């Protein structure tokens, strides 16, 4: 009976549903309804208007397709829809908007979107999909191969980029332009104080590459990455002056190695010389030592080379003996042969050397030894009897490829083509066409297992707001695949993750209106030819002052690079099915304390990253330097946030910096803390040096009479780079927004000089106490330094202080995140003055900065009397303050021998210029 009733109810309900179902439309009714829908939604539907900036072309609704029962509506759009970053929640939002626009008849209709006939769900990156909706053709397995190079005195970062290999380059570079100029020229003009050719190189070499490497990756660059103008070659064929090698064991000579030459024409230098080979056996451990015989202690990049052979060791050992100790590397000599392989950047002196050997326990195999290269050097490819006369670092990739052994079929395609009947040197076209094929050459011919490639560029274009960030990839409208059968949509995923990270981070920290531009799918040679995921990132517009006002901030450079690194990390973790952790930020609140028993307590705090919850350190590495001008050692790892260190009473300066470490990598270094105990006495009294100079900054902004932003006023304030910025080429000269762009030589608004093109601008080294402390030790006074933040947060004991020196350098309240005298600093100064502790305060803006209140000036006994030009010349390695504050005394104060120095009560000295800029000798400024 129950069975009969159930059947009866089923048919009743089915009949009711059929009665309530939408009537089936005829063909003519469907056509009419589709036309009505097109008219209601419009050719350019308003539902896509908020995402207009993400489409190079507006999203155009080309046709609609409606099912006969109105249950499914398909909207077919142009390519503009595929240029938007797609998420499922975005699709749902658009579908709701369409249903609302079309009315109650479509309230339950399923709305589907298409871009050039492809369902837009395909454009959702795997990273944002649920597991059951992932595209397996975008997933892959990492190469099961020893990495090209690994520093073995560093931990493995299992949740970072260990074992990953990344191709990277900054766009453009100086090149020979035969077609018009018959001269060496920049590919892009000098605008707003920089040139894209150098600006992208600065991002790549000083920020992105170090971040990737600190996460464990091997970075292979298409351009020379070392800005050092000097170069030394140590080789068995021909070394530069004074350099030599020493051999241990039996080495035989093979053909096909590097040979150094003064200039290059069409030669491949890695085919001009020879290479050495030795057998490794149980009792035979061959070794080669390279002595560069450097004349000047300086920072140099170190490259090595070998000939790749199947019998070679996959764990050959290179040891770099640098001024701070030894760095050991394991290299895979079965791959990466006949090319320059980067080991790192080191402080090297006359005693430095590089040693190639076999590791302990290896009883068979071979080693090959070719040249070692120290320093970046100068361009040496000749054109029409001339060379570029700039550092190789500043040249285009095409010249580095030639110098690094790449065949001309890769970097000179247009020059060698049959269509070039006149035999011109088509270096410009060769340069941008070569990068993509270079990636394949490095992976397939050199055997380096590249995982992906990233090219950094900046865009042209002027507007009255932010231009923002564009990403470019290639999928051939989703049809393209790599030779391993994987979809090139993975390149779109990479572009999306990197661009998303950039836009989210820049909006959070700098400008909430930072524009997310298109995800451009174009067949550019740089990204269509690599047989791996490859993208170009147009980070911002170098022609738009609104972008440049933010982009010239060193903090922005760091955060832009960090976003690129995070996007790459997330992409590779997702592609290979691995968990990830973002490397931490540098530690902060560093503090040095002198304790009894000649002990230094060094303490610090972890820096929280509000944009990345995983970037939490679980250990630290403390680096030490002996002497005011020495080099840091390889560091020691510690678990806590303080370290007790014995401090010899020998009159030497000891300096320390700290990095934060987690399973994802190692941070950039902290500021430097220095200390030293005088050997002249054993008193516990000391001088405290406070580093109040924490500022990094873009140049001062300049406005016209209508308060429109027109550029940078580098005469007022050239800004403060992070350590050193080689992308700043000279002051802006054209401030007229109506000046038109004519050509690279006459670029109009923003045009700048290039007087600093080979030196750049020195900025904040965060390392000033050592030099001043050395002078104190010369005078028999012990010292210790502390960070500004620690001075603000921790009280000091006046009874032990011989004096306090507060170094403000070029500190000022620009950008607004900085100030000179904070409330906490003022509080500390009051207590020191009340305790009659001698006090020295110096800084370029202690009188003129608007954040310095009359209360502070009254406390310290001075007032501002304007500014005077700084007549000291620019010096490489020392930041330059363009003006000096003229100070005048208040009551109980008097002027010293220059009008920027005030003394009050014989123990408070106020100096209107950065005292740390001076050369010091026997405790006296010179």
3D architecture notes:
Keywords: Hydrolase, Signal. It comes from Candidatus Rikenella faecigallinarum. This is N-acetylmuramoyl-L-alanine amidase. One of its GO terms (molecular function) is N-acetylmuramoyl-L-alanine amidase activity. Strands 30, 31, 33, 34, 35, 36, 41, 42, 43, 46, 47 and 48 form a 12-stranded mixed beta sheet that branches. A 6-stranded antiparallel beta sheet has the order 5-19-18-21-16-13, with no helix packed on it. It is α+β, with helices and mostly antiparallel strands and 926 residues long. The chain folds into 4 domains: 22-124, 2-Layer Sandwich (GMP Synthetase, Chain A, domain 3), CATH 3.30.300.20; 155-173 and 191-221 and 409-576, Aminopeptidase (3-Layer(aba) Sandwich); 232-375, Sandwich (Jelly Rolls); 588-694 and 765-859, Immunoglobulin-like, CATH 2.60.40. The chain has 16 helices and 50 strands. The model is unreliable at 7-20 and 918-926 (pLDDT under 50).
Helix content: 10-25%
CATH superfamily of the largest domain: Zn-dependent exopeptidases
Work out the helix count: 16
What is the CATH topology assignment of the largest domain?
Aminopeptidase
For this entry, give a set of tags.
926 residues; alpha+beta; GMP Synthetase, Chain A, domain 3; Jelly Rolls; 16 helices; 50 strands; 21% helix; disordered C terminus
Précis, in short:
The chain is of the alpha+beta class and 926 residues long. The chain contains 16 helices and 50 strands.
